[in-house]
Automatic annotation (TrEMBL):
<comment type="similarity">
    <text>Belongs to the sulfotransferase 1 family.</text>
</comment>
<keyword id="KW-0963">Cytoplasm</keyword>
<protein>
    <recommendedName>
        <fullName>Sulfotransferase</fullName>
        <ecNumber>2.8.2.-</ecNumber>
    </recommendedName>
</protein>
<feature type="domain" description="Sulfotransferase">
    <location>
        <begin position="70"/>
        <end position="311"/>
    </location>
</feature>
<keyword id="KW-0128">Catecholamine metabolism</keyword>
<dbReference type="GO" id="GO:0008146">
    <property type="term" value="F:sulfotransferase activity"/>
</dbReference>
<keyword id="KW-0808">Transferase</keyword>
<dbReference type="GO" id="GO:0006805">
    <property type="term" value="P:xenobiotic metabolic process"/>
</dbReference>
<dbReference type="InterPro" id="IPR027417">
    <property type="entry name" value="P-loop_NTPase"/>
</dbReference>
<dbReference type="GO" id="GO:0006584">
    <property type="term" value="P:catecholamine metabolic process"/>
</dbReference>
<dbReference type="InterPro" id="IPR000863">
    <property type="entry name" value="Sulfotransferase_dom"/>
</dbReference>
<dbReference type="Pfam" id="PF00685">
    <property type="entry name" value="Sulfotransfer_1"/>
</dbReference>
<dbReference type="GO" id="GO:0005737">
    <property type="term" value="C:cytoplasm"/>
</dbReference>
Amino acid sequence: GQGTDAGGREELVDGVGGVCFVPSVMERWRELQEFQARPDDTLIATFPKAGEWSSMLNSALIMSLCTFWTGTSWAIEMVDVVRRGGDISGCLQIPSMMRAPFLELNPPPPFPSGIDILQNQPSPRLIKTHLPFHLLPPSFVDQNCKMVYVARNAKDTAVSYFHFHRMNKKLPEPGDWNQFFDSFLTGQVAWGSWFDHVTGWWKEKNNHRILYLFFEDIKEMRLHCLSLCCLFLSRLFSILITEPFDRIIEHTSFKNMKQNPMTNFSLLPANIFDQSVSPFMRKGEVGDWKNMFTVAQNERFEKEYRQLMSDRGPSFRMEL
Ligand code: A3P
């Protein structure tokens, strides 16, 4: 089937280069590969469920507009911030999926695809992708774009992705936890193998302008990671202004993002995201896998993990 019939879940297909996808992504694959990145684009890449940190980066970007830019954007932002009594979060009136469009997302009409949204968006754009590095449209590398990769430990990712499959009515049927556990370990899930994903980006991180962050670090040391983002995005000056920093930290807390309609995806109807099954902002914790993994599953996971992760790959914390 085409998999994009209104309402239905998509099937999993063998996509490209051994990576599984949903059919809607494959439908515009050529166009996707020909996507024209611009030099001032910032790409945010993650394996699914590494966390909606795009909002944090977006805040950093907006702050920089306030401090560095001249011209209309600057004036609009400044006036708007002043008008809202200095409240940066008040400026974020646009859903995160519009602020950082999802590059390869290709939903059925009337919803626009990621490519369609991005082509009409003024610079500087913030772009979200779940693509493995080797399947990125080549223009991102050609244009030397900055890319922020966020990696999350495999066990929490697996659990989070399982619950996401239950509530996201566009993703393939996950089966029960046991079945999904198998699919995840063998890379038979949309966007493929977690192992290939995190190591693929890791290998490239020094060859391109890539900031490689860990979910666990962001959770534990948000100010530190936010500073790294500002440095990486050349927003050094913002670091000197500590008050907006506190506001960004607050704005991007789990509690706030869970409540914020611009970040909690409550704008999507229940036939796409059924949040009564599992909320999009579910728990946001490190180590939640312990509530899901059986002892046997954990042993099998550990064994395969050692085989699939090379010694020189990224090293993850499964708990804090
Ligand atoms: P859980 O399912 O473990 O709660 P993505 O945005 O890539 O789909 O990832 C979603 C996961 O990131 C969810 O994990 C979600 O709760 C978590 N997350 C999103 N924003 C967060 C935040 N501000 N703090 C902690 N976790 C967050």
